Recover the amino acids of this structure.
């Protein structure tokens, strides 16, 4: 399965330095992405990509969605633990959604086909169920006079 590769090399070091220079230590000093965008002239997605790259390079950049909202350099053990918990929870949610898409993909690959001949004797597990006109499930071949085993 192909995975999307992130090309962070296309981000100029000057953009990274500009974003990093705006960040302050501690949760209370969070700088909003709107402020980072205003000062640097960068687009919102670009700021997010830079933050992601800086985090992957080892910078402990926290984010807050409650007042004061924004990004900050984590400066305390509890801030690091809080960010680890938040990121783990977000990652689990993303994996749950990915699993649903994978399941839907696998279900789309499964198609029900009616065999042209009755299933082999004793091959109950190979029978494909079809809905009869009465709405009940019955084995393939039952509508063609094949023996139905209970």
């Amino acid at each position: 399965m192909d995975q999307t590769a992130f090309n962070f090399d296309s981000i100029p070091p000057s953009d990274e330095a500009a974003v990093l220079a705006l960040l302050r230590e501690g949760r209370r000093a969070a700088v909003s992405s709107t402020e980072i965008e205003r000062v640097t002239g960068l687009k919102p997605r670009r700021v997010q990509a830079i933050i992601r790259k800086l985090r992957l390079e080892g910078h402990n950049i926290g984010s807050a969605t409650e007042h004061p909202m924004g990004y900050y350099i984590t400066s305390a053990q509890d801030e690091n633990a809080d960010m680890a918990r938040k990121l783990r929870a977000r990652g689990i949610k993303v994996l749950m959604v990915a699993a649903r898409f994978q399941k839907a993909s696998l279900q789309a690959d499964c198609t029900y086909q009616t065999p042209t001949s009755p299933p082999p004797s004793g091959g109950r597990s190979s029978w494909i169920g079809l809905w009869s006109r009465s709405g009940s499930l019955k084995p393939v071949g039952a509508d063609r006079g094949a023996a139905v085993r209970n």
Remarks:
- The helical segments are 13-22, 33-40, 44-56, 77-109.
